[in-house]
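Our consortium's second objective concerns turning raw sequence data into structural hypotheses that experimental partners can test. To show how far this objective has progressed, the report includes one record in full. It was chosen at random from the queue rather than selected for favorable results. The single chain below, 210 residues long, was entered without modification.
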Amino acid sequence: MTIIQSASAQTVKASADLADGVNAFRAGDYINAWRVLQPIAASGDAKAQRYAGKILITADLPDQIAGDERAGVAYLTRAALAGDYAALVELENLRLAGKEFAPTLDDMIALETARAEAGDPVTAWRLSRRFETGEGVEPSEAERLKWLEVAAMAGEKWFPKASEAAFLLCEAHALGANDARAAQNWCGKAADSGHAGAAILLRRLAKAQG
């Protein structure tokens, strides 16, 4: 067996083990799920980290599994930092539920900022909303637009709200900053992705330019 074939076989086995662990979790067999998933999580697999975190946070945790809820949150945080959106949602749901061991709003904003600074559109979109509403931060139009740009640049293929982010940028530049060129660029990007509102606004901008 060549090195490439060996690596491929290991990848297939790891994928099968991960699936077995997830199935055990879904069946409520947390002991076997932990036995399978914990080593995979320790190797850095984000999905395994998410499920390991969920096991440790589960109310009916078997005595055979060492750990606590805060360790579970740590697993979920590592998964979210690696780009696992489901883990991010799990963390936010824990926060909203007011769990004692849940991350704080500041924790969530720090996590989202780290991901958004790496170019992640989902967390950039979430941050844009926070800076619009002032949830956990000082409202800032400049910050809102900054993160909207990250979300818009991802494209619809990678982020379904990319065209909406581009449209919001178009509106901001057309109505607030009064920057017709930037407005047209963002509306054009949104319209190319099928955003009906952007197409209408783009025609109005073109008409206004004469």
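The partners drew two points from this record. Residues 3-26 form the longest helix (24 residues). The chain has a mean pLDDT of 90. Both points have been shared with the crystallography group to help prioritize constructs.
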